Amino acid sequence: MKLKNVLIVVKDIEKSRQFYKDLFGLDLVLDNGGNMILTEGLVLQDEKIWKKFLEKDVIPQNNSCELYFEEPDIESFVKKLEYFYPSIQYVNKLMTHSWGQKAVRFYDFDGNLIEVGTPM
C-alpha cells in the first residue's frame, strides 16, 4: 500500500491554489470541479463538497495536523511569504529549535497549519 495524497479543505479553491503556487511552487495536476490535485500530492477540496460528504462542520485551526515543507534558504522563503501574504497568521515566526533546525509555522487562509523548516 502507498499513501497517495493528502487532502485539505478550503473555502475558496482558486485562492488556495494560487497560495500554494506562490509559496511552494505547486502546480495543478487535475481539476475535478471542487477538487484539485496539485503536484507533490496535495489535494484541495471545496468546503461545501466536504461538508456534504461528511455531514459535519469543518473546524479551522484545530491544530491536529500540519503540512510540512523543507526549504534550505528559509530566510528567502520568509521574505517571499511576507511579500505575497503580509497579513498571514503566524503560529511562530522564524525560530531556531534547540537541535539547530530553523522553522516557521503559520496558517493558510482556511486555518490549515503549515510548517516550513530547513532540511535535517
UniProtKB/TrEMBL annotation:
<dbReference type="Pfam" id="PF12681">
    <property type="entry name" value="Glyoxalase_2"/>
</dbReference>
<dbReference type="InterPro" id="IPR029068">
    <property type="entry name" value="Glyas_Bleomycin-R_OHBP_Dase"/>
</dbReference>
<dbReference type="InterPro" id="IPR037523">
    <property type="entry name" value="VOC_core"/>
</dbReference>
<dbReference type="InterPro" id="IPR025870">
    <property type="entry name" value="Glyoxalase-like_dom"/>
</dbReference>
<protein>
    <submittedName>
        <fullName>Catechol 2,3-dioxygenase-like lactoylglutathione lyase family enzyme</fullName>
    </submittedName>
</protein>
<feature type="domain" description="VOC">
    <location>
        <begin position="2"/>
        <end position="119"/>
    </location>
</feature>
